[in-house]
Amino acid sequence: MAHISLPDETLPGIVGLFNFRPETAVPLQLLAETLLRGESPLTSGERELIAAYVSHLNDCHFCHTSHASAAMAHLKCDLALIDDIKHGFQEIAITPKLHALLNIAAKVQKSGRQVTEEDVAAARTHGADDRAIHDTVLIAAAFCMFNRYVDGLGTWAPLENEAYREMGKRMAFTGYVRNVNETAN
Amino acid sequence: MPHIPLPGHLPGITGLLEYSQESAQPIRMLTQLLLRGPSTLTPGERELIATIVSHQNECRFCTAAHTAAADLLLGDTETCNIMKQDIDAAPVSNKMKALLKIAQLVQVSGKAVTSESIAEAKHHGATDLEIHDTVLIAALFSLYNRYVDGMATVAPTDPDFYKGLGERLVSNGYNRLPNGYDHLK
């Protein structure tokens, strides 16, 4: 049970919190939409992998599995590959550039102060530009927020990867700004 | 020196928010709502939450900026000073002490928040909404601190800079200035 009384306890993770406080849900959803589906030199699949990886490092099961599922949907990979994110990308084919950016994201997860000039130079060597470096740092920082929000209020999360299949597809292809989409439909 | 070229007249977070205005918009909206929107916590109390998290993350820019805002809003400099050393000794309500301790746990990890820390806040009269907002403010500053330091932005050493910034945060809040920041050049 969550640390606070949510109007609908059946809604998992951040969904239950959006429902508790719709005012804060609006900018939070817009931020996710902008960072993960807005303009960027990184593909949405790459950005969802960064989100899923940071969420794994923060031990946030809901954010990790849902964003991993969104990444799999973008990359047209089977959900079985989700666990490869936890194992440090042995099977998922990632570019040296993304590898270097994931290293920066892992530093950000610990502390912004851990990111070194060498980390950034390594990413540049593999073709990351200013924008890619910026977007990586901000996505990693944003998931340090989302993860703390979800777990700090003690929300529940479905255990199995399979439970995140449809959610991931929705996040990948419909997006994060639910209300706008509902109105549009 | 920042990891990417940023406007020299806008140190800390401001340069980043101007560099990436599209992602800045929901971040600003969320901050304005949480720190200045309708709440049973005063703006000064909410700035204390921002300050304690930034302090624990050793983010010099954010700590100095939000200390300056809190000092102005509370009308003294002791509260922030003492809080950073020992929350229990700070001249704030027992409810605020309990909320600040929750914020401290969120800084560590969402998973670090215990049922006991929540029960303590509720025992001293904290509502679900106050607990929610405390966790989300602490989570939001976990984002800000990582964004500011992860991009290696400049933190001015001149105390007068933060005095001016604190005044701006009190009088204008967190929305982008309508005419931008060219007047600071």
Structure description:
- The complex is a heterodimer of chains A (185) and B (185).
- Chain A has helices at 13-20, 22-37, 44-57, 61-75, 82-86, 96-110, 117-125, 130-152, 165-173, 178-184.
- Chain A is an all-alpha fold and 185 residues long.
- In chain A, helix 1 crosses helix 2 and helix 6 crosses helix 8.
- The N and C termini of chain A lie far apart (33 Å).
- Chain B has 185 residues and is mainly alpha-helical.
- Chain B has a single domain (12-174), classed as AhpD-like.
- The longest helix of chain B is centred in the C-terminal third of the chain and has 23 residues, at 128-150.
- Chain B is globular, with a radius of gyration of 16 Å.
- Chain B starts with 11 loop residues before the first helix and ends in a 13-residue tail after the last helix.
- In chain B, 47% of the residues are buried.
- The mean pLDDT of chain B is 98.
- Chain A: One of its GO terms (molecular function) is peroxiredoxin activity.
- Chain A: Residues 31-73 form the Carboxymuconolactone decarboxylase-like domain.
- Chain A: It holds the Pfam family CMD.
- Chain A: This is Peroxidase-related enzyme.
List keywords for this structure.
heterodimer; A: mainly alpha; AhpD-like; disordered C terminus; B: 185 residues; mainly alpha; 0% strand; globular; peroxidase (chain A)
The domain tally of chain B reads 1
CATH architecture of the domain at 13-92 and 137-184 in chain A, please? Answer: Up-down Bundle
CATH topology of the domain at 13-92 and 137-184 in chain A, which one?
A: AhpD-like
Number of strands of chain A: 0
Helix fraction bin of chain B: 55-70%
Enter the CATH topology name of chain B: AhpD-like
Distance between the termini of chain B: 18 Å
Structural class of chain A: mainly alpha
How much helical structure, as a percent, in the residues of chain A?
A: 55-70%
Order of helices and strands of chain B: HHHHHHHHH
- Shape of chain A from CA axes? globular
CATH class of chain B: Mainly Alpha
Question: Whole-number average pLDDT of chain B?
Answer: 98
Assembly state (oligomeric): heterodimer
What fraction of residues of chain B sit in β-strands? under 5%
Distance between the termini of chain A: 33 Å
Kindly provide the radius of gyration of chain B, computed on alpha-carbon positions and rounded to a whole number of angstroms: 16 Å
The rounded Rg of chain A comes to: 16 Å
GO molecular function (chain B): peroxiredoxin activity
InterPro entries (chain B): AhpD-like (IPR029032), AhpD_core (IPR004675), CMD-like (IPR003779), Uncharacterised_peroxidase-rel (IPR010195)
Protein name (chain B): Peroxidase-related enzyme
Pfam families (chain B): CMD (PF02627)
